């Protein structure tokens, strides 16, 4: 999985006044969990742009004055009006411990149902996976090449290589629905057939 480096500074004081001061200076208060003690730090808001405002999944290298931690983003809080980032939580990665995170779904293949006039609907844009950090995938591949019109692709049909999918077996990842145009054409064909039969 691709990684993004965030350069920050450890926070000495973590009270409301210190947090407000940090935000006023364009910094985002953050906490890193998963180690012996939580690590409080701040980083510039613009440093998180490629991590937060993207459909892709990334791991994070948090660099605090040369001391680095491998992590994943766990939570982000936005201001309800301005949408500015207010706070972020990270979880430290350990090579021998599995981690859970959401990964985007990438559609591959060509569906016969879509070629026949059906409409592809992606029910799950992201799927929750569990894996060791080294095995975290950049995306989960959803192969639609066997989907006929009206068919569904269930999570059980997804190839999982060195990771687990944390979804019930009946979770629909994608489906090919009959388009209105195809339905209308089928109805008209049926009417024509009926009329021809009467003659």
Report what the structure shows.
- By secondary structure, this protein is α+β, with helices and mostly antiparallel strands.
- It folds into two domains: 3-93, Ribosomal Protein L25, Chain P, CATH 2.40.240.10; 100-184, RNA Polymerase Alpha Subunit, Chain A, domain 2.
- The chain is built from four helices and 13 strands.
- It has helices at 16-24, 49-52, 112-115, 180-198, and strands at residues 3-10, 27-33, 39-44, 59-64, 67-78, 85-92, 99-108, 119-122, 126-131, 140-143, 152-154, 164-165, 172-177.
- The protein has a six-stranded mixed barrel with strand order 1-3-2-6-5-4.
- The model has no long low-confidence stretch (mean pLDDT 89).
A few lines on this structure:
With 199 residues, the chain is of the alpha+beta class. The protein has helices at residues 16-24, 49-52, 112-115, 180-198; strands at residues 3-10, 27-33, 39-44, 59-64, 67-78, 85-92, 99-108, 119-122, 126-131, 140-143, 152-154, 164-165, 172-177. This is one of the proteins that binds to the 5S RNA in the ribosome where it forms part of the central protuberance.
């Amino acid at each position: 999985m691709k990684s993004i480096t965030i350069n920050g500074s450890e926070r000495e004081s973590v009270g409301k006044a210190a947090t407000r001061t940090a935000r006023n200076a364009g910094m985002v208060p953050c906490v890193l969990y998963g180690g012996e003690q939580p690590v409080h730090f701040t980083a510039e808001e613009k440093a998180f742009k490629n991590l937060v405002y993207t459909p892709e999944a990334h791991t994070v290298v948090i660099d605090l004055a040369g001391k680095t931690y491998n992590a994943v983003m766990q939570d982000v809080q936005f201001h309800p009006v301005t949408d500015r980032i207010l706070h972020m939580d990270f979880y430290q990665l350990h090579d021998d411990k599995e981690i859970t995170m959401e990964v985007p779904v990438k559609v591959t293949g060509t569906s016969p149902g879509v070629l026949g006039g059906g409409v592809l609907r992606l029910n799950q844009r992201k799927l929750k996976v569990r894996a060791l950090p080294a095995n975290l995938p950049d995306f989960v591949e959803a192969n639609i090449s066997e989907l006929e019109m009206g068919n569904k692709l269930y999570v059980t049909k997804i190839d999982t290589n060195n990771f687990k999918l944390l979804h019930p077996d009946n979770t629909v990842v994608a489906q090919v629905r009959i388009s209105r145009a195809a339905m209308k054409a089928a109805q008209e064909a049926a009417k024509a057939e009926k009329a021809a039969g009467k003659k």
